[in-house]
Design goal:
Blueprint: H1 2-25, E1 39-41, E2 56-61, E3 69-75, E4 79-85, E5 94-100, E6 106-111, E7 114-119, E8 122-128, E9 134-140, H2 151-157, E10 165-169, E11 180-192, E12 198-207, E13 213-219, E14 225-231, E15 237-248
Parallel strand pairs: 1-10
Antiparallel strand pairs: 2-3, 2-15, 3-4, 4-5, 5-6, 6-7, 7-8, 8-9, 10-11, 11-12, 12-13, 13-14, 14-15
Length: 251
Amino acid sequence: MRNAKKAAMVVAALVAIAVLTAALFGRRPAFEAVPEGADRLTAGAPEVVGSRLEPYTRVLGVPVSRRGMDVRVRELQDGFEVVYDFDPGDPAVEDRMILDRESLAPRTRAFPGQSFRYRGDEMEAVVERQDGTVDTIMFQYGGDVFEVSVLDLVAVARDPEEGDAYRVAWGNFADADQWLAEVRVRGEEVVSGPGGESFDTRIVDVLFPSGELRRFWLASRPPYKVRQRRFDRGRLVTSGWDLVEYRTGSG
């Protein structure tokens, strides 16, 4: 009897979590396949203009805790440095990328135990194993790829218009043959930010070959991405971020 009650309590808790998650994030939106003849966006494509972007710092948080990570975009002489800081103040847990200033093509990426170097349609991964050994793995793609963590910036730099549908090249670390994701630009939505500030955003969906879908709410001004939801292939949300605060400039 006690076990039955405990099981019932567990089921009730799981149902409550599912209801709360659905209330906060909703189910994965339907995604109409991008036509075969649609544009294929690779790193270096002339329609991606990185000079449209300005440096910024933003803090993203989940709606429950309101705290997640800091994201910093700093302007370099001929590029951008993008840092995902999962524990502000501790460089040991930073995910750091260098992008070309104009094309946003990735040059390098590094986070604890792993580093990546891009050369057009190739990517070299250096992985440090727990036993201290180091492996070097080469990936060859069908075109010049973007870094998957900054596809929101790529979409902004392309200047998204409602109805756009295209494929974008991204550096898939798991399967180099699956290097194209499908992108659709949905309608517009006004999103409330910190302090009651409003952002006019475009809704951009990115569908990956695995079935994962990421939805971005993108403004045309810093900090650009003000909301994100990620859904797995089973149509359940796996993560979500909202803008907590931001500031412009490289400081």
